[in-house]
Structures are given as C-alpha cells and as structure tokens.
C-alpha cells in the first residue's frame, strides 16, 4: 500500500499496543473515530485498534487483558490505567435483528474489515509504517464535510438501524451534509429504527442535541426517524402558531430555541421538550388567534413520560421536568418576587431557568421582544443581588431549626412543619427577619413562667 502523507500522533499507550503487535508479525492500525478526529485536530476520546491477530493471539502478547467482546473479536488491552479495544479483522454475518451480526468471521484482510464499517469518514486506518489507509474516500469526504455510507447504504442500515441516527448525529457534530444516496437510504429504512433499544437511540439523540448544530433535529424529522422514537416532536413540526408572540410552527420554534441555548444536556433537553404539549392544547379564537392554555402542565407530564421512555436517569429527568414546568412562569419584578421564584423552581435550577427563558424568547417573534428581554434581565440582576447578599431561600438556611422548636415544646409533625413554613414565608418577604430570636418570638408561644 502506498503511504499517505497524513501523519497522526498516536499516544504512547496505543503506540505500545501497535508496536507489540507489529513486533509479533501482525498487522495493526488505529482505526475509526480516533483517526477521523485526529485528522480534524480534535482530541479522540478512545483509541481503537484493528489487527490481523486473533483474540487468543492478542491475549498471549499482553499481560493484562479483558474479554470485553471476544465473541466478536474484541479484547481490551490494559496499558497502565488506560484500556484499548483491540479487534481482529472480521467479516460480519447476517444481521437478523437489525442490530447485531448473527456471527462474525475473522479474516486476514484489512480491506474486508473496513468494508463493514458505517461511513467513509469512520473507515480509515493508520499506522506509522503505512500511513493513512483510506479505501473509500473518507479523507475527501471529511474535507468536503460529507457523511457517506460505505458501499450500499441500504446494506449498511439494514445491518444496524442505529447507523441512520449516527449519520444525522455525525452531520451535526462535523457540520456536514448527508450524501444523497445515504439520505435516501435513511428515508427508506427509517421504520427499522424501532428495532433499536431506547438506550442506544438516546445516546445518539443526546450527542446530536449537545452538538454545535442541534438544528439537525430537522433532518431527523424529515427522514422519518423522529416518528419512530419521538412522534410528539412530529406533531410539533406541523402545529401552526397564529399568535402575535410567535413566527414559527411549534417545531421550528423548538429548533430555534435549541440553537439559542448553550450546549448543556439538561438545557438542550428542556428546549426540545418545553412546548411539547402545545399541539394537544391548541385552540383558535374568533379572531383566528391560536392559544395553548394548559400546555405547560401537559408538557411537563409528557416530558416526564418521554424521558422515561428514553431511559433517562432520574436526576436528568427531574431537572428537565422541573424546568419545563416553570419555563412559562412569570415573577414580580421585585426581590421578593424573584426569591419566591427561586424557591419554587429550586436554587439549583433558577439560573438555568433564566437561560431557558432567554432561549425561548430568542425563538419568538419581535412582538414585545424588548420588553420581555428587559424583564428577564431585571430578574437576572435581582437574582445576582439576592445570591450575593446570601438571602435565606430554603428551610435549610432558615435561622430556626426543628431542634429549636422541640426545645420549646413543639412536637415534631405537621404542626412543626407549618410553623417553619410560616417562618420561611416571612423571611422571603423580608430577609432581615431571618433571626432566631425574631422568628421564635413571632411564631412560637412559649409557656408563661409561674
């Protein structure tokens, strides 16, 4: 093979694995995403290695190995504190479930191994001895920012339906376009995505959402992929908003809001789902104006169900649902109003709520936009002042604790909780009242001395 002029700096651990395999007379290359990312001058997360050595031969060469996927030819080699997946060149058998090959056949041919990979930009291999091995024009596609299936797209997507989601995700991450035949293959086989587990779908969706181009959600919709795992979003894309405050359909508003908020998992999921209840709540008055009364409560319920369906962890789900629940909440433009807003949504999420409101506004029409912007800015300034001063915002920071009440003869239970809540309500109105002496004197009757 002719050596390519591309040079990749392979880290010490991966280099040691390659050197050991080469020294034993085997072919070995770093392959896939690490090659792609290195060419793009990105830092690879993992360094995967492909080799002509069989799994038992790999294990014989290294002192510390783990059989992570030995049935499919993968052994993890441990070098220091790092693990490197080393996979034998293979040819995949039939994909009967649209996810996994029924069998694999080990081969001595790198060409055969690269043929089974998903996209040209992921089908490049590299070693110092040979340079870049690029059989399918991956380097050219990478430079042109094109996502193209290796070989026949229908075959690649029939083998593993998740590859359709990965195509759109890579387009989002690499600021690329999907090649025409590859895109046609996705449209034709989109229903096969239902064979893929919710967990695998969630991972690809999340990577797309937190990328620099979350607007690729539009491609997921246009190719029929969202219809398979997020049909609620499809309903948003066709739901008009004839209302002075809006200039897009609900779906397009969501997409613009995604682009307007910073790249954070909770924030992007919140913007994806914040108006998910609108299509079911839409009414039109006698003047042709659309209204969406009740969409916040319904949207929070739907968001919870969707995140459960996608197997999200409880912490992420709870945060997103809370933000969706409060995304449309208004507050008085006073310190007390903001303090009560902080308590309602939670101290941890209030700063994120302000970001959600800013992104929501950025995706609306210009109607009263300056007025809305100034109000959010006012809330932010009041919030910063409240935090800098250290105002009491929870029972945890209240000057009176449960023990103070029990020492005065108040029995634990509902009555004690009501007293503490009254104290907090007082302090939210007037922070200077967060004094143990004041609160006990005001809200607790002490027995009179004889």
Describe this structure in words.
The protein has 450 residues and is an alpha+beta fold. Helix content is 50%, strand content 10%. It has 23 helices and 13 strands. The strands form four sheets. A seven-stranded mixed β-sheet has the order 3-4-5-2-1-8-9. Strands 6-7 form a two-stranded antiparallel ribbon. Strand 12 and strand 13 form a beta hairpin. Helix 14 packs across helix 17. The longest helix has 21 residues. It is globular, with a radius of gyration of 29 Å.
Low-confidence stretches: none
Q: What's the alpha carbon Rg, rounded to whole Å?
A: 29 Å
Shape: globular
Structural class: alpha+beta
Q: Biggest sheet, strands in spatial order?
A: 3-4-5-2-1-8-9
Beta-strand percentage range: 5-15%
Q: How far apart, in Å, are the first and last alpha carbons?
A: 103 Å
Number of strands: 13
Mean pLDDT: 94
Features:
alpha+beta, seven-stranded mixed beta sheet, 450 residues, 10% strand, two-stranded antiparallel ribbon
Task: Provide the fold topology.
Layout: H1 12-23, E1 28-31, H2 33-39, E2 49-51, H3 55-61, E3 65-69, E4 74-79, E5 82-88, E6 90-92, E7 104-106, H4 110-115, E8 124-127, E9 131-134, H5 138-144, E10 146-147, H6 153-159, H7 162-174, E11 177-178, H8 180-189, H9 198-209, H10 217-222, H11 226-229, H12 231-237, H13 250-260, H14 265-273, H15 278-281, E12 283-284, E13 290-291, H16 295-309, H17 314-326, H18 335-345, H19 350-362, H20 369-389, H21 402-407, H22 414-429, H23 436-443
């Amino acid at each position: 093979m002719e050596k390519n002029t591309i040079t990749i700096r392979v880290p010490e651990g991966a280099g040691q694995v390659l050197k050991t395999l080469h020294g034993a007379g085997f072919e070995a290359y770093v392959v896939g995403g690490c090659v792609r990312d290195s060419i793009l001058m990105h830092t690879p997360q993992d360094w995967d290695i492909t080799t002509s050595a069989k799994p038992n031969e790999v294990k014989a060469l290294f002192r510390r190995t783990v059989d992570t996927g030995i049935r499919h030819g993968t052994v993890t080699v441990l070098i220091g504190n790092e693990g490197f997946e080393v996979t034998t060149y293979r040819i995949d058998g039939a994909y009967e479930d649209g996810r996994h090959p029924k069998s694999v056949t080990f081969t001595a041919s790198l060409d055969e191994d690269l043929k089974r990979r998903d996209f040209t930009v992921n089908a490049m291999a590299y070693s110092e001895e040979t340079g870049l091995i690029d059989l399918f024009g991956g380097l050219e596609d990478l430079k042109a920012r094109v996502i193209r299936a290796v070989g026949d797209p229908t075959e690649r997507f029939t083998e593993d339906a998740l590859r359709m989601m990965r195509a759109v995700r890579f387009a989002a991450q690499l600021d690329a376009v999907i090649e025409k035949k590859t895109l046609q293959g996705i449209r034709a086989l989109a229903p096969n995505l239902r064979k893929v587990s919710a967990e695998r779908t969630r991972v690809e969706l999340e990577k797309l959402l937190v990328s620099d181009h979350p607007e690729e959600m539009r491609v997921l919709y246009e190719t029929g992929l969202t219809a398979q795992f997020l049909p609620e979003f499809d309903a948003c894309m066709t739901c008009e908003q004839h209302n002075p405050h809006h200039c897009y359909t609900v779906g397009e508003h969501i997409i613009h809001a995604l682009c307007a908020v910073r790249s954070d998992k909770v924030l992007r999921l919140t913007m994806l789902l914040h108006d998910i209840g609108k299509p079911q709540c839409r009414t039109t008055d006698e003047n042709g104006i659309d209204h969406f009364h009740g969409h916040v409560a319904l949207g929070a319920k739907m968001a919870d169900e969707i995140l459960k369906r996608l197997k999200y962890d409880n912490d992420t789900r709870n945060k997103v649902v809370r933000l969706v629940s409060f995304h449309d909440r208004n507050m008085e433009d006073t310190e007390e109003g903001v303090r009560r807003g902080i308590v309602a949504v939670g101290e941890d999420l209030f700063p994120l709520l302000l970001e959600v409101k800013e992104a929501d506004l950025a995706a609306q029409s210009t109607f009263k936009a300056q007025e809305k912007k100034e109000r959010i800015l006012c809330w932010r300034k009041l919030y910063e002042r409240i935090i800098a001063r250290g105002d009491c915002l929870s029972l945890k920071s209240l000057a009176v604790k449960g023990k103070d009440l029990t020492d005065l003869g108040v029995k634990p239970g509902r009555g004690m909780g009501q007293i503490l809540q009254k104290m907090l309500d007082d302090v939210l109105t007037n922070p200077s009242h967060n004094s143990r002496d004041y609160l006990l004197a005001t809200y607790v009757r002490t027995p009179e001395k004889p």
